[in-house]
Amino acid sequence: MLLDIDQLRTLVAFADAGSCKGAAHLVHKTPSAVSVHLAKLAASLERPLLERQGRRLVLTHDGTELVRYARRMLALQSEALAHFRAPEFGGTLRVGLPDDYIPVLMAPLLAALARLAPRAHVEVQCAPSAELRPLLADGQLDLAILSAETDTQEGVVLRTERVVWTASAQHDVAYADCLPLALFPEGCIFRKWALAQLRKRRREHRIVCTSRSMAAVQAAVRTGFAVSVVAESCVPPDAVVLTPQQGFPALPAVTIILAASPATDAALAQRLGEQMRGPLRRVRG
pTM of the full predicted structure? Predict the structure, then answer.
């Protein structure tokens, strides 16, 4: 009996996303195709891999065990392919990374590149997603990690994360008559979502800090100077998440993707995504 590598990839996507719909987004298949893959994999092993808990499908013990093996098999396949295709990834590899994702994504990105493109000279450019997109389209970058809307068809999905309002735990700035905001510049989807919600509710507000630097935005939050909107993994340790019960409406989730320029082999982005998703599952957010 041989295990189908595509079916294993679908199983890992289910484990990462927590649903057939989410897995379909990760592997670029329909939810029904994901269900078929999982059913065939279970049949080949003659073991149930999923069970129903209430209205949700979850992994069985055997399913969880198989995910562990599947991750190792997929990683080994990627490394083997990279070994024999390494010359294609030689030279300089220019990668874009938003400043706000450096603490979470830099280490997994560089570790995956070291395995998959060991001969490449990696150059990282840090800038907001809105600035990285045109550089990628123009071929000035080879790869870029970007923030995207949840229904995006762009790139390889790395993870989906909650976007939250955050404020200092030591100050009452969130309840000011005129809400002070610390935001990224125009073009940031978090900025767009936050301002749209405040305008919809006619909540008086003003932008008191605009910065391309996540460190600056976090400092504005920690000192009680402003409220901000960030990915959940970027909430400062000494800050709190503001809830709808406190008057701060829920915001859309953000999808973090890895995209390749038109001239870059899309297979590299796909393999990098597979290598990065495992470590990212252990990150808060």
Answer: 0.67
